[in-house]
Design goal:
Helices cover 45% and strands 12% of the residues. The protein is α+β, with helices and mostly antiparallel strands and 178 residues long. It has 5 helices and 5 strands.
Length: 178
């Protein structure tokens, strides 16, 4: 599926866009460590420990890029989101530049109320920016676009990392499934 701005792209960019759109999943081999780290991250956001949040986000990014065999990058967690008349900036991907490794920046507080961002939004922002890195460094795209495939890849990572968070089905005492 293509979004409206697709028609404004050059033919080269349209080709990259379609290639990105065709890739729907990123499969991780081992998720237990990532699941544990995401649980820790959820608790750390409540505590607002910026240093530990950054360390845990770095660990998540390191594990994902290691499993997918992409170059390592730096994760930086910042406080209040920048904003302007265009809205709030949730995260930012800065590609490798002049020998400096790529970097992800994620903001942990909303611009308006300066409250800590909801955990799922925060983790999805981290994974979103990580997907930009993977577009460049794993898939070799010269540009990264917000295609339906891009959002599917982000969602596939989130679902794998948070699979354990779904509550188990419980059966009331005295009832059985037979």
């Amino acid at each position: 599926m293509v979004f409206n701005f697709y028609n404004r792209l050059t033919s080269r960019q349209q080709s990259i866009y379609r290639q990105s759109d065709d890739i729907k999943y990123l499969t991780l081999r081992e998720v237990a460590q990532l699941q544990s780290a995401s649980t820790a991250l959820e608790e750390l956001l409540i505590s607002e420990d910026l240093s530990e949040i950054e360390n845990t986000c770095q660990a998540i990014a390191d594990e994902v890029v290691s499993q997918i065999k992409a170059p390592r990058l730096k994760v930086q967690i910042l406080t209040v989101r920048p904003s302007d008349d265009w809205g709030e900036l949730h995260g930012l991907y800065l590609p490798e530049d002049d020998g400096k490794p790529a970097k992800i920046q994620v903001w942990m507080r909303t611009a308006k109320n300066k409250k800590v961002v909801a955990f799922k939004s925060f983790l999805r922002t981290l994974l979103h920016e990580l997907c930009h890195h993977l577009d460049y460094e794993h898939f070799g795209f010269p540009e990264t676009f917000h295609t339906e495939g891009f959002y599917s890849r982000e969602s596939s990572l989130f679902k794998q990392i948070r699979a354990h968070s779904t509550p188990a089905l419980t059966i009331a005492p005295g009832l059985d499934r037979a």
